[in-house]
Specification:
This protein has 11 helices and 7 strands. The chain has a single domain, classed as 3-Layer(aba) Sandwich (Rossmann fold). α4 crosses α5 and α8 crosses α9. The strands form 2 sheets. A 4-stranded parallel sheet has the order 5-4-6-7, sandwiched between helices. The protein is of the alpha/beta class. Helix content is 39%, strand content 10%.
Amino acid sequence: MEGERTPEILDYRNENGHGWSFYKNDSVLRMIVTTPEDDMETLRKVKRFELRDDDVLIATYPKCGSHWLWEIVTMLRTGNSEYNMNAKEFAMLEIPKSERPDELPSPRVLNSHLHFRHLPEKLVEKQIKTILLLRNPKDVSVSFFNHLNGLKLNYRFDGTYSEFLDLFLEGKMSNSDYADYVKDWLQVKQDNPDLPMLTLFYENLKKDPVTNIRTVAEFIGLSVSDELCEQIAEACSFKKLKSADTEIKEHARNQSDIWKEGHHRWYRKGEVGDWKNWITVAQNETFDDVIERRFQGAGIVFTYE
């Protein structure tokens, strides 16, 4: 990570004032929510975070299904389809109150949106089982826009989707460009063959949840029945997870100070191909050009509908 000098502030708001200010930490754009110094201290804590041998880490770019997969893996490790009373934020490494994951009993299911370079130092040494969940970038952009547009907080986005898409395609986002994030993790897998790593796709998990849940179970070393996989798939259907998030999770209480009225916290539609309702023909052509250029050589084939 960069030194203690005061970092340069990059103002990437558009002509309408929509967007954010960032600083760079080890070449990754980091949104300035409080101060760069506070964020750098959070990242230092993450680097020092003490991993346990039986931890599992879920790595995702924002809006790629981290809540969904966290619930699935948590249920697999408990051996039932009951919802965890906590939200996955309690096990998220970069939440400023990062003592929360330390307080969780083993076996822990940790999660993060961070690049590999910002994660705990001993991730490879301890051979922590890591699951990378990817989603097609068009649906990511729509989901990310609706998430940020629904917030009341200072990092919300008040512009149109068209304005947001311009920033998204230019990589002017917290955690930087989606393609950079994906390619960075693919390089990690190539450079660290001893790191046990499973790559899943949101769209495959949506299409065939039972098969993918079994794949996850095998990866983390669990022998599970078909019945349990089916029960978890049902409990983690979008409709039921959305209800559980509102009615069961402890964090559901009194969220009116965070979200605008009518916006659900984490679950909106969860559909594959919703981007067609947002992206114009001209925008789609531009998007395709960017995807072809930015993901060239990555060997990734996304599913868009």
